[in-house]
Design brief:
mainly alpha; two-stranded antiparallel sheet; 15 helices; globular; Farnesyl Diphosphate Synthase
């Protein structure tokens, strides 16, 4: 499969999820207009849509109709977008540029950015509660809400961010770094796969376990590649300034292992991820393509 094949398929996924996002987000002029304009600015800013891509690829691997996955994919992306808005704030990473554009608090103001994050998080859960198709039963939707709230909260992404903040300027070994990123990045990657899997009424515990392991390995590989790109990525391509982690004295995989060893570890994790979904056969080929993309990407 060529990169062009994957790019075309990812564009198809992106168009689907952005249609769903446009449906659930209030129009920019809706009162209070500044908040809704800022919410749309934060969501429609050229993101890679990796998490929705994983959701759709999981759905295809399981034979689920993509329209059954649309709003699960949108919900995960809303959580991700909220997290980026808050991560960029001066109290967190203090970033001015995101995807080549001013960050939300720079384009608007800090108070608006805080409210944008709050509102996007709430909208994610409303999306699952109110927009999932009837083909996805109520008990599956309830489990989706529980799973996504766990992934976003203190035992997931928010907890990982807290660990990250406390780690600045402190020594951290590889096991501690892995624990941080399993929470901060991996939890939402895992949710992307599992929410889509829950759209399959015939999902078995064995298949769910394989997909869960795939997502855990891929989430960590994704973060390692992010760390590597922060060291040697091209700002014109990545859309953000390189070297931010080093300037903030943050622990990273390249800092602990070196860039070459960090890349090797990421490849090993992807191989482990692919081995876990091998029983899916040809139906899992888009999941495999996304996994390969994760460590080959340059932004």
């Amino acid at each position: 499969m060529s990169r062009n094949d994957l790019a075309a398929h990812r564009l198809r996924y992106t168009e689907r999820v952005e249609k769903a996002l446009d449906t659930v987000l209030p129009e920019a002029g809706t009162h209070p207009a500044q908040l809704h304009e800022a919410m749309r600015y934060a969501v429609f800013n050229g993101g890679k849509r990796i998490r929705p891509t994983l959701a759709y690829a999981t759905g295809e691997a399981l034979g689920v109709e993509l329209e059954h996955v649309d709003y699960a994919a949108a919900a995960v992306e809303l959580i991700h977008c909220y997290s980026l808005v808050h991560d960029d704030l001066p109290a967190m990473d203090d970033d001015d540029i995101r995807r080549g554009k001013p960050t939300c608090h720079r384009a608007f103001d800090e108070a608006t950015a805080i409210l944008v994050g709050d509102a996007l998080q709430a909208l994610a859960f409303r999306t699952i509660a109110s927009h999932m198709p009837a083909a996805v039963p109520a008990d599956a939707r309830l489990e989706m809400v529980a799973l996504l709230s766990l992934a976003a909260g203190s035992r997931g992404m928010a907890g990982g961010q807290m660990i990250d903040l406390q780690a600045v300027g402190r020594p951290m070994d590889v096991a501690q770094l892995e624990d941080m990123h399993i929470h901060k990045t991996g939890a939402l990657i895992r949710a992307s796969v599992l929410l889509a899997a829950l759209c399959d009424p015939g999902l078995t515990s064995q298949t769910r376990g394989r997909l869960d392991h795939f997502a855990k390995c891929l989430g960590l590989a994704f973060q390692i590649q992010d760390d590597v790109l922060d060291v040697d990525g091209d700002q014109a391509v990545t859309g953000k300034a390189s070297g931010a982690d080093a300037r903030l004295n943050k622990p990273t995989y390249p800092a602990l292992l070196g860039v070459s060893e960090a890349r090797r570890f990421a490849r090993q994790l992807v191989e482990d991820a692919l081995e876990s979904i091998a029983p899916l056969g040809k139906s899992g080929h888009w999941l495999k393509a996304v996994a390969d993309y994760v460590i080959a990407r340059d932004h």
